[in-house]
Specification:
single chain; 161 residues; alpha+beta
């Protein structure tokens, strides 16, 4: 399994996930840069994602929804802040209310850094999400963000093999 470590720190309001892939950083970057590839790994296997908008440039926005086993949909967005291809990008990740991707003020946003560095001929990816408060972090932990993110990231190996 690519995910090698998952930790959270309520004091620092962060979740950190580390994963290692057998492919070079450029190949991992391509997964995030291509919405059709990203759909195959964003979200747990039983909640596949569909990206309606995908703009991985500074100031860009990505709107997506996940479809559950019963056909139920969960909407989300990324607001891309910085891009250093193929090494890293930063984004705001949030939940949306509906198919218009209106921000959901009742669920927390997080500021994220996704970074990819060469490691042992492959890639070490580090995903760090920072929340506005310990309560916001606890809320997403209670919602299963660690399990969901881990199962999602673990799908990348099959895609890049």
């Amino acid at each position: 399994m690519p995910v090698t470590d998952v930790s959270h720190d309520l004091g620092a309001r962060t979740i950190t996930i580390v994963a290692e892939f057998a492919a070079p950083p450029k190949r991992i970057w391509e997964v995030y840069a291509d919405p059709r590839q990203l759909e195959r790994v964003w979200g747990p296997p039983t909640y596949p994602a569909t990206f309606v908008d995908h703009d991985l440039t500074p100031g860009g926005r990505m709107n997506y929804y996940m479809t559950g086993p019963e056909g139920d949909r969960y909407y989300g967005y990324w607001e891309v802040q910085e891009v250093d291809e193929p090494h890293s990008f930063t984004l705001i990740d949030g939940f949306a209310l509906d198919e218009k991707f209106t921000k959901n003020p009742d669920l927390p946003e997080s500021a994220n850094v996704f970074s990819f560095v060469e490691h042992d001929g492959g890639t070490r990816a580090t995903y760090v999400g920072t929340y506005a408060s310990a309560e916001a972090l606890q809320k997403v932990l209670d919602m299963g963000v660690v399990e969901g993110s881990t199962t999602a990231i673990n799908q990348i190996d099959d895609l890049v093999a």
